[in-house]
Each structure stands twice: as structure tokens, then as C-alpha cells.
Amino acid sequence: MVAPPDNDVLWARALHYRYDDGSPGLSGVSLGVREGEILAVGGPRGSGKTTLLRCLSGLVAARSGEVWFNSVPVHTMSPVVRERLRRDRFGWIDPEPVLVPELTVWENAALPLMLRGTGRRRSRTAALEWLERLDVGDSARRHPDRLTQAERQRVCIARALAPAPAVLFADEPTAPLHRADRAHVLRTLTTAARSHGITVVLGTHDAQTAALADRTVSLLDGRSVRTVHLPPVPGAAESEGRAACSLSV
Ligand SMILES: Nc1ncnc2c1ncn2[C@@H]1O[C@H](COP(=O)(O)OP(=O)(O)OP(=O)(O)O)[C@@H](O)[C@H]1O
């Protein structure tokens, strides 16, 4: 087993994942994520973005390959230890808002902090602060069913940021938002990540969203690909002479 580079907070090597029905989720993906970096994982629908985020976060175990977090091997951890790692160090945002309907908005946003052992009062203060930043502070005492889908997604983003996780996995986090909302919410998310030193792994098929990241890794059919711009062909018109293709690496 080769140890990962010291400055990578997350490091994965040769990840393979196959679903129970035989669908190939990942076919040999390797990557490193530096501390504090915002890394976009791009690619079309079905290319393996969600599967990669699930494997990197320890939500599922890859069939083969290695995942390291801060030089600690995640791929050899038991499910219970992986669960504790996710609770204490990682945050997760789904493409659809998932909240506990019986709890108020602020209780939902404070939940990860309380599960980590932070007192109720401190958790509430942090939750309210993040709900304000995401423009849903006025709804703190309501239950999720009184909010719109877009507001519920903002609550999920506040909930993920409140504990200042070491790594935030955001899978199409702005999918339920209108275009106008999207830019504002993404800016809040990236600004918060940069000011709190949170590393972000951002799954997205949207080039504009990926443009906010420091770097993009693109997937195609479960493999990482590199976009290569070919030089112009001498004598050909500009539009004919330039081409881009993706190579498996
Ligand atoms: N639960 C599942 N059971 C079987 N196959 C699955 C399952 N989830 C995903 N897949 C398959 O695994 C491959 C990768 O899917 P994945 O959801 O990781 O891609 P994605 O890039 O996140 O797509 P999207 O942008 O649509 O969310 C696809 O071929 C998909 O059909």
C-alpha cells in the first residue's frame, strides 16, 4: 500500500465500483484533492459523479481501490468507523432537499452539530447564523413542509456548512434552485468554504457551476477523462481547425 502525498486531504487510487445489477459505476478512477481546494467533478448524466462522491466520502465502499483521508486509509475501515468519520469530519448535500419533517428548520440545521456532541445552545446559534446567510433565517421556527423546495435546499446547505466540515461533498447542490438563485447560493457556499478552509468536492454537469471551482476532474462512463484542445490545422479556417476531444487517462 503506497501512502498518499502529504498535501492531499483526500486521495483515491484505482477506484472500481459495480452496482448489484451489474451497472459499472466507476472503472479505475484516481484523484487527489488538496486541502482547502474546491474540486468540481464534472461529466454528463450517468458518468459516475454521484458514485465517486459516495466512494470518496465512505458512504459506500469501492469494490477495489484505495481512499485516503488525511493519510488515513478509509478503504480498510469498518462500516461503523466510516460512519463516525462521515459524522465528525464530512458534510453532504444531496441534489434534493432531505430534512426531518418533525423538526423545525433550525433544529434540522443544528442536527449534525448536536450529533457531534455540541451543546444545544451553541448548535442553535451556529445554525441560525448559517440560515441567515442563506436567506432562510426568517423560517427558522417553521417546519420544512411550510417552505418551498428551493428554501428547503438552502436549509440543507446551511446544515452542511454549520459544523465547518473538513470536506464537504456537494452533489448537484443547486439542482432545485432557479437560475437567479443558483449563483447567489453557489457564491455563499464557495465563499464560506474558502473563509473556513473547507475542502469541497462538487459534483456537477453544469459548466458554469464548475467554473467556480479551482479545478475540474471530468468523468465519462465511470472513467476520468482529460479534455485536450488540438492545435489549429495550418491553412484551415479557425472553426474547422480547432477541435476538442476527451482522452481516458
Ligand atoms: N442504484 C443504482 N443501481 C444500479 N445502477 C446505478 C445506480 N445508481 C447509479 N447507477 C448507474 O451507475 C452509473 C453512474 O451513475 P451516477 O449516478 O454515479 O452518475 P452521475 O454522473 O452522478 O449521474 P447524474 O448526473 O444523473 O446524477 C450509471 O450508469 C447509472 O445508471
Automatic annotation (TrEMBL):
<dbReference type="InterPro" id="IPR015854">
    <property type="entry name" value="ABC_transpr_LolD-like"/>
</dbReference>
<comment type="similarity">
    <text>Belongs to the ABC transporter superfamily.</text>
</comment>
<dbReference type="InterPro" id="IPR027417">
    <property type="entry name" value="P-loop_NTPase"/>
</dbReference>
<dbReference type="InterPro" id="IPR003439">
    <property type="entry name" value="ABC_transporter-like_ATP-bd"/>
</dbReference>
<dbReference type="Pfam" id="PF00005">
    <property type="entry name" value="ABC_tran"/>
</dbReference>
<dbReference type="InterPro" id="IPR003593">
    <property type="entry name" value="AAA+_ATPase"/>
</dbReference>
<keyword id="KW-0067">ATP-binding</keyword>
<dbReference type="GO" id="GO:0005524">
    <property type="term" value="F:ATP binding"/>
</dbReference>
<keyword id="KW-0547">Nucleotide-binding</keyword>
<protein>
    <submittedName>
        <fullName>ATP-binding cassette domain-containing protein</fullName>
    </submittedName>
</protein>
<feature type="domain" description="ABC transporter">
    <location>
        <begin position="10"/>
        <end position="246"/>
    </location>
</feature>
